[in-house]
Design a protein that fits this description.
heterodimer; A: about 750 residues; alpha+beta; Aldehyde Oxidoreductase, domain 4; five-stranded mixed beta sheet; about 25% helix; globular; B: about 150 residues; DNA polymerase, domain 1
Chain lengths: ~750, ~150
């Protein structure tokens, strides 16, 4: 079954079980088990304490798991299928993963923090273990053999030494509910787990985990089958477009309806600062949004001059300071150091700039609402829509369909609230899609920040004291989901006050440094309402900026210590961290020398190599970049990467490689090119010309990847970790090539050229 | 002011009554009910809307539907099928190229046109031929592998 088949099924849980045959079992079930496994009699409400909420076995012996997260195109669902298949002794392709509908899956947090496998996989695996234990119990009775003698292959239970004595999962329970309770940890979202007393397989026995079955959505995409939220069509549906203000915070004061009178069937929806147009045909809605004459209120200049952004951050009052780590001897150690080094780094606002802007379709009918959304967190979208419409949560169904790009809390979260409001106002199903600026100028941004580091080196060139402090906009001026309309543009345009969450982070690494002070500070949002520069999670929230700074700084320390950048890091690392650094360096063919001494700095085009290492949660990544810098134009080309990636147990190496490649290329784009442009009143990055991303002519020639597999260590996540060290690896390579240290991202030709000519 | 415009779409006759200035994209997705190409930018900057117009890769988001009058329009759905895939489609599956995949029409339709005019392009020719297309997930390396694989199949 392809993912498209799943997407096309709009079956209830009951429907799924019925669809594969139910109600009749051809053998007698032992009384104590019969009480548990009952025929499907009707829909069963989702209950986190019930095995049936996570897993079903069909009459043909295949399985379906109900996974409360989504996959943005990296194959998380395939990994989940493999984990479940492993414990059930099924091939991966006999496990279907349902993850698309709030009425069919329990909220496991949606896509979040690279936790899809790490946390999302736990209850799925435990449910599979529980199911297997239960099935073996049934089989033991049926086959009149002790459980210890049973073996399972491809969902068929056999008795060791008794050929022909077999029973299949399908025969044992196919189409029926387990009715088995599991111990639930009481949590909903990322942390949800259920416990099992059943033993999970030992890594040495893995047959499915560690192999590379293919994605289930690729064929549908390649053969142009309906896949995306943008492809959803509902009878009677109308098309909508929002009209954002020309100046942030401005509101319509006059709307000239006659300006769109010539466009058939246009309706204008206006509430406070929110303005949208609706028409039967999409092109008519687009034309109406373009042609509608609107007078806007004057709005104060909310933003600093772009070139004063970092001064603004430096000068702004601190809203929250959090010291994540402080050792008492820090000041004394700095004072006693043989050498101290300080530096400051700057990172701009960046946009999700998804391939297409957000889209949602909402239908409201008889006190219920159905929402089709591309958000990463459909359950929270459901909650936000329910709150907006004043409906009980159980009357709102959110159906996930992949959106045009999924790297965090992008504009999809705003679209879903707006589409629900419009459907309510218009009284017909509404499909809303943003035009290009909605997804670049108006999506929530990755925050701009500055980072200050000071360290002391001893006489042996070891770091004895290290201070690292970040100051910037919170990474969550709006939350990373849309459960509260305060987090949506429309909500803020209606005057719902901001509810910023003060959040940042500190470098994640395992350098052995005796004295540390690691802290972060957040400052106020630039505008107290619907701001195009509001921040939220963008792939690896605050990871790229922090580790651009911290890993550039470690390189500066290596240089100050007159040490090779790899060797200097290894002085301070042990175990898996050191192994990753070595693996990346070896794969690259790293030649040991002090960076900046490549000796080619007089040529027009110079090359260099740099390394960076970081952790994310428990995943370890080391990246070596080779760059080419054209000293005449200032253009930097990241030519080659070697990546060592350790995320514990690897579920699917093939898909992991593609995921890492994507992170490296996107990370390169963000490092070299991406900076949201703005003036005092608006964001002026509105399309691909004004927010350029990496072109294929500049894509690396080669990305070599070393996967460091630890089957005995639970998986620690791979969606984002390889994004974070990219910028520093490139910056360190630029230093090696040119002897010039770039401390402000992105490394555009202008910035590079200015630095080369000493004007930086 | 609507006009009756007919053209050949993926080998079949298609007729729309539409404002001739309306971009072809909306005729394909709206009037004719196709699920691709996609709206990406509406500015011919990304390629997500790419179709073949008389064999040439064309950004349908800025091409008036009138330009398709009497023409041969091919979309990704017309390139091949699971049973009879275009070499690029087979290669895309082999290499597991797309992540979100929303950009796919641009890369595949442009590459298909490229391979037709230059069946065995060099790496540099592939990059040059695909320049300007956007992929936000960063699948560029896999795209390059797939185009080379497709070229090798031909």
């Amino acid at each position: 079954m392809t993912s498209t088949d799943i997407l096309r099924q709009d079956l209830s849980r009951r429907g799924i079980l019925k669809g594969t045959g139910v109600l009749v079992v051809s053998f007698a079930v032992p009384a104590h088990l019969a009480a548990a496994a009952t025929a499907v009699a009707g829909p069963k409400p989702l209950d986190p304490t019930q095995l049936d909420s996570y897993l079903a076995i069909h009459r043909d012996g295949s399985a379906t798991v109900f996974f409360g997260k989504i996959d943005g195109g990296q194959g998380t669902d395939v990994g989940i299928a493999q984990i479940v298949a492993e414990e059930l002794d099924l091939p991966a392709d006999r496990v279907t993963v349902v993850m698309d509908d709030t009425t069919r899956v329990i909220n496991q947090g949606g896509a979040s923090g690279s936790f899809g496998i790490t946390w999302g996989g736990k209850p799925m695996r435990n449910a599979a273990c529980e199911a297997r234990q239960f099935l073996l119990g049934l089989a033991a009775q049926k086959l009149k053999a002790p459980i210890e003698k049973l073996t399972v292959s491809n969902g068929v239970v056999s008795v060791a030494g008794a050929p022909g004595k077999t029973v299949s999962y399908g025969q044992l329970i196919g189409g029926k509910f387990f009715n088995v309770a599991m111990k639930w940890n009481g949590k909903i979202g990322n942390d949800l787990n259920v416990e099992t007393t059943a033993q999970a397989k030992k890594p040495a026995d893995y047959k499915v985990v560690g192999t590379s079955p293919r994605r289930r959505d690729v064929a549908a995409k390649v053969f142009a089958q309906p896949t995306y939220v943008t492809d959803v069509r509902v009878p009677g549906m109308v098309h909508a477009r929002v009209i954002r203000p020309p100046a942030a915070g401005a509101e319509p004061t006059a709307i000239d309806e006659s300006s769109v009178a010539g466009i058939k069937g246009v309706r204008i929806v206006h509430k406070d600062g929110f303005l949208a147009v609706v028409a039967d045909k999409e092109w008519d809605a687009i034309r109406a949004a373009r042609d509608l004459k609107v007078t806007w209120s004057q709005s104060p200049a909310a933003f600093p001059e772009q070139e004063k952004l970092y001064d603004h951050i430096r000068d702004a009052a601190v809203r929250k300071r959090t010291v994540e780590k402080e050792t008492p001897g820090f000041e004394a150690a700095i004072a006693g150091a043989a050498q101290t080094v300080s530096a400051e780094y700057e990172w701009p606002f960046q946009s999700h700039a998804s391939m297409g802007s957000g889209c949602a379709v909402v239908q409201i009918k008889d006190g219920t609402a159905t929402v089709w959304t591309g958000t990463q967190k459909p359950h929270y979208a459901r909650d936000g829509v329910a709150a907006l419409l004043g409906l009980p949560v159980e009357n709102v169904q959110a159906i996930w369909r992949i959106g045009p790009g999924s790297y965090g809390r992008n504009d999809a979260g705003d679209t879903v609230i707006e589409a629900a409001f419009l459907a309510q106002q218009i009284g017909r199903p509404v499909r809303l899609q943003g035009m290009r600026p909605e997804g670049i100028a108006w999506d929530p941004k990755g925050p701009a920040s500055i980072h200050r580091a000071t360290a002391g080196l001893d006489g042996d060139g070891k770091i004895v004291a290290y201070k690292f402090e970040s100051k910037g906009f919170s990474r969550l001026e709006i939350d990373s989901n849309e459960s509260d309309i305060a987090y949506s543009i429309a909500g803020q345009q209606w005057g719902v006050p901001l509810k910023p969450i003060e959040a940042f982070a500190v470098p994640d690494e395992s350098y052995q440094i005796p004295n540390r002070l690691m802290a972060w500070e957040t400052i106020a949002p630039l505008l107290d309402r619907a701001s195009p520069l509001r921040t939220s999670h963008l792939r690896d929230p605050v990871g790229p900026q922090i580790h651009f700074a911290s890993e550039s700084f470690i390189d500066e320390l290596a240089h100050a210590a007159n040490a090779d950048a790899v060797e200097f890091r290894l002085r301070h690392l042990t175990g898996r961290d050191a192994a990753a650094v070595k693996a990346a360096a070896d794969k690259f063919g790293w030649e040991s020398r002090v960076s900046g001494s490549a000796g080619n700095a007089d040529a027009d085009v110079v090359t260099g190599r740099g390394i960076a290492y970081s952790k994310r949660a428990l995943t370890i990544v080391a990246v070596v970049a080779e760059v080419e810098v054209d000293r005449r134009s200032g253009k930097v080309r990241a030519k080659r990467f070697a990546v060592a990636h350790d995320c514990g147990c690897i579920i699917n190496p093939g898909l992991l490689r593609n995921t890492i490649e994507g992170n490296i290329v996107q990370g390169t784009s963000r490092s070299l090119l991406e900076e949201v442009r703005f003036d005092r009143q608006s964001v002026t990055s509105v399309d691909w010309e004004t927010y350029p991303i990496l072109d294929i002519t500049d894509a690396p020639e080669k990305i070599d990847i070393v996967l460091l597999d630890h089957p005995e260590i639970a998986p620690t996540g791979a969606g984002e970790p390889s994004t974070r060290p990219v910028a520093a690896a490139i910056a360190n390579a630029i230093f090696d090539a040119t002897g010039v240290r770039l401390r402000q991202a992105p490394f555009t030709p202008d910035r590079m050229k200015a630095a080369l000519t000493g004007r930086a | 002011m609507t006009e009756r415009i007919s053209f050949q779409l993926n080998g079949r006759e298609a007729v729309v009554d539409a404002d001739p200035e309306m971009p072809l994209l909306y005729a394909l997705r709206g009037d004719l009910g196709l699920d691709n190409p996609h709206f990406g930018c509406g500015l011919a900057q990304c390629g997500a809307c790419t179709v073949h117009l008389n064999g040439e890769a064309t950004r349908s988001c800025v091409t008036p539907v009138a330009a398709a009058k009497g023409a041969k329009v091919t979309t990704l759905a017309g390139l091949g099928s699971e049973k009879h895939p275009h070499p690029l489609q087979a290669a895309y599956v082999e290499e597991q190229v797309p992540q979100c995949g929303y950009c796919i029409n641009g890369w595949m339709m442009t590459a298909a046109a490229l391979l037709k005019s230059n069946p065995h392009p060099t790496d540099a020719q592939i990059r040059e031929g695909l320049s300007g297309l956007k992929c936000r997930c960063g699948t560029h390396m896999a795209i390059l592998r797939a185009v080379k694989r497709a070229a090798a199949m031909a």
